[in-house]
C-alpha cells in the first residue's frame, strides 16, 4: 500500500467506476490545472525569494476557535499528517502557492470515513474538474501516472493571481522574460570564466613550420613562460617569434544597473526585497513584509481550513481556524519592553503572553490577567463602583477564559 492509498482510500473504485463529464465554468472552458516543473523554482534568486516566503509562513500557528473539532487543534499544531510536521506542512503549501499559484489541501479521514483526523498538502501533476450525477469532483493525475478523485467541496484550494480561471490560479508567464534574462546572465558569466582560463596569449612565428613543429613550439613556449616553473614573472622568447600578444577577453556581462533592474523585477513579482532574503531586515521591514505577504497567506489559509473542517451551521456558531503569528518576536527590545509593560498591567495580555513576546517558557499560573491598582470601574455617570464590602473594585486579577 502506497502513500496514495493512504490519502485516498478506496480511490481505485472512485476513479474507475464513476462515469464523469467535464464540468463547465463561467469562463466557458474546461477548468484544469497543470503543475509547472522547473522554471521559477530552479533559479537561485527566485528560489531564495520563495524560500523566504515559505519559511515565514511555516511559523504560523493553527488555532481552532469554538468547540467543534477542538480535538484536532493539537494535531494541526504539531503533526497534521503521519508524514510531516506543521512546519513542513505549511512550508509546502506556501511554496506550491508561490511556484504554481495553486495549492491543494485534502482531508485525511478516520476509520469511520467521515471524521477528519488530519490534512495533507497535495501536489498533483494535473487536475481536472469533472461532474457525475450532480456532484462535482477533482480528478488528479500524479507524476507517476496514478490517478485519484475527491469531491470538490472536500478540498481546500488556495490560489494566487486568480483571474482567468474560476477555480485555479494563473500561470507565471509574466515573469518568464525576466527568468530568461537571469539564465542568459548566468551562462554569460560561466562562459567568461571558461574563456579567460583557456586563451591568454597569442604568439606569431616568424617562419613557416609543419603542424607537428607548431604543436611542439606551443608546448615549449607555455612550459617556459606560463607554467608554475616560471617564478620570475618575466616572459622571454627568441627571434623566431615575430610577435607575442596577451589576449584581453572581455565578454559581455550585464552591468550593475541592468542587473539591479532584473532583480527588482523578481522582487516586485514575488513581493519581497533584498533585506528579507539576506535576513538583514529591521522590525519595520518585517512588519511591511508581514502585512503584504504573510498575513495574506494566513488569512486565506484560515478561510480555506475553516470551510474544510466546519459546516455552515458550525461556522455561524463561531467555529473557525485561525493562523496566528507572534510578530513581536522580530521587534527591538525597546519595542518589546514597551508593549509588555503597557499591555500587561492593563489586563490586555497575560503573563504567559508576555513570555511569548520574549521567547521564554511559560510559567505556572501565567494565564491570569492583572490590572494595575489605580484603574477602577466607573458607572455610566462617571462614579467609582463600590463592591458589597464597601471597597473600590481595584487590584483585580482576572482568570483568562482562553
Topology:
Elements (H helix, E strand, L loop, with lengths): L2 H5 L3 H7 L3 E2 L9 E3 L9 H14 L3 E5 L7 H6 L7 H15 L1 E8 L6 E7 L3 E7 L2 E7 L5 E5 L4 E4 L16 H21 L4 E5 L5 H15 L15 E6 L9 H15 L3 H4 L5 H27 L2 H5 L3 E5 L8 H12 L6 H7 L10 E3 L26 E3 L3
Antiparallel strand pairs: 1-6, 2-6, 3-12, 4-5, 4-9, 6-7, 7-8, 10-11, 13-14
Helix pairs in contact: 3-5, 3-8
Number of helices: 13
Distance from first to last alpha carbon: 42 Å
Alpha-carbon Rg, integer: 32 Å
Mean pLDDT level? 80
Oligomeric organization of the protein chains: single chain
> Structural class of the secondary structure composition?
alpha+beta
Uncertain runs are: 392-398
Sheet with the most strands, sense and barrel status = 5 strands, antiparallel
Helix content: 25-40%
Order of helix and strand elements from N to C terminus = HHEEHEHHEEEEEEHEHEHHHHEHHEE
Which word captures the global form? extended
Q: What percent strand? A: 15-25%
- Say how many strands there are: 14
Properties at a glance:
3-stranded antiparallel sheet, alpha+beta, extended, 5-stranded antiparallel sheet
Task: Walk me through what this model shows.
- There is one protein chain.
- The protein has 402 residues and is α+β, with helices and mostly antiparallel strands.
- Among the domains are: 178-246, no CATH class; 328-402, no CATH class.
- It has 13 helices and 14 strands.
- It has helices at residues 3-7, 11-17, 44-57, 73-78, 86-100, 176-196, 211-225, 256-270, 274-277, 283-309, 312-316, 333-344, 351-357; strands at 21-22, 32-34, 61-65, 102-109, 116-122, 126-132, 135-141, 147-151, 156-159, 201-205, 241-246, 320-324, 368-370, 397-399.
- The strands form 5 sheets. Strands 1, 2, 6, 7 and 8 form a 5-stranded antiparallel β-sheet that branches. A 3-stranded antiparallel β-sheet has the order 5-4-9.
- A hairpin with a 2-residue loop joins strand 6 and strand 7 (135-141).
- The longest helix has 27 residues, at 283-309.
- The protein is extended.
